[in-house]
Amino acid sequence: MRGGLVEERWGAYRFFHLAFQEYLAACYLVKTRLGQGGVNSVAAFLEKGLVLESWWREPALLTTGYFVSTGDELTRQRFVRRLAGITRPPEQTAALSADVQLAALEIAVLSSLEWLKTNTKLRTELAQWAASLLQNRTIMTQSTPRLRAAAGNALRRLGDPRPGVGINKRGLPDILWMKVDAGEFPMGSNEYGNEQPIHTVYLDEFEIAKYPVTNSQYACFVAATDHRAPRHWGGTTPPDGLRTHPVVNVSWEDAAAFCAWLGEQENATIRLPTEAEWEKAARGTDGRKYPWKGPFDKTLCNMAETGIGGTSPVGIFPAGESPYAAAEMAGNVWEWVHDRYDEKYYSVSPASNPQGPETGQSRVLRGGSWNHNVYLVRAAFRDYFDPDYWGGNLG
To answer: Beta strands 177-180 and 206-209: pairing type?
Structure first.
């Protein structure tokens, strides 16, 4: 070590304090690259090495923060739009990986939040642009799950405009309904005792929510009814950082009460799906093992191997959607269904529109969650708990 430098190898050095190195890198970008080609040059230079896990993330935040805090209004807007990708030339976008595009978007949003509170027009423009990226199947399939989650959280900070995620103009949960056609499908599997036997079930046509109920949607119910709020909220409103994540710490009784309340508001029959309805919506009619065709792929859902380590914003795994475009049917959070649990119910269940056993203490859960393995996120897997049980992965 020589002063503030550490010799990595012969002739190559780094600063002992990483924060100082990051600060100097940001100074270089602002002072040198800006003079060579303006804000477009700085943004393009950042993109060459910008990946969320890279040490470039902090210099990028510092550089963007400099423009937003010291630049004139035109320079601020030009830089943020360019880095986020709104005004990036198409040929440059084509040369960037999906990871870099999402990382650049997140940097642009995080560094601009305070300023954007007073710039509604640009905030709306950024939200619409971010939503278009999150709904771009190619971008979301080619990027890493952690970067998708980061981009989803950035969009949440801007105000997520995607249908089915938040609140509608009436102040009620904006549920996006997916149609499941009437007909037969093979239910169950031969992999575990309570999933046997595989049997053919006929279901009438029904609709199922595209996404799990989010924290912001559940908050409408809590506010209107004084129902018990999930314990992780720490009050009657959800943490701002989790508004577009699935609500957790809800029991079967909580989930059923939410459905009944929403049905009253919408003058419609809204309830938890039966086991059979849930499974058909999750895997379709071709007997697939997961909501998607083919083998398990940890990049198509939020489970233990995916590495997110908690709930994620809904809708960031479009390639993992079911044949009916229902999302999050594997992982993210367990989903309560209507049925009581009986290990041997499949051997006696009706062939048409089964409603589950008439008696039984426990209620069924489906889909696995963010901290479960490949076996538990299969579409046929059945779990169960007492109806008054709630936990940090139950939605």
So the answer is: antiparallel
CB 173 within 8 A of CB 220: yes
Q: What SS3 class is residue 6?
A: strand
Nearest to 346 by CA among 198, 168, 178: 198
For residue range 96-129, what is the model confidence (pLDDT) as tens digits? 889 889 988 988 898 888 888 889 999 999 999 9
Q: Which amino acid is at 108?
A: A
pTM for this entry: 0.89
Cis peptide before 295 (omega within 30 of 0): no
| 71 alpha carbon, distance to own chain's centre | 34
Instruction: Determine contact, residues 99/50, Cβ cutoff 8 Å.
Output: no
Strand 335-340 with 363-366, pairing: antiparallel
State pLDDT tens for residues 254-297. Answer: 999 999 999 999 999 999 999 999 999 999 999 999 999 999 99
Where are the strands (E) in the chain, listed by range?
5-9, 12-15, 177-180, 183-187, 199-203, 206-209, 335-340, 363-366, 383-385
Neighbours of 112 (CB within 10 A): 27
Q: Would you list the DSSP string of 121-187?
A: HHHHHHHHHHHHHHT-HHHHHHS-HHHHHHHHHHHHHH----TTTSB-TTSSB-PPEEEE-SEEEEE
The phi and psi torsions of 84 (rounded to 5 degrees) equal: -65, -25
Dist CA 98 CA 135 (whole Å): 13
In this structure, the number of other CB atoms found within 10 A of the CB of residue 23 comes to 15
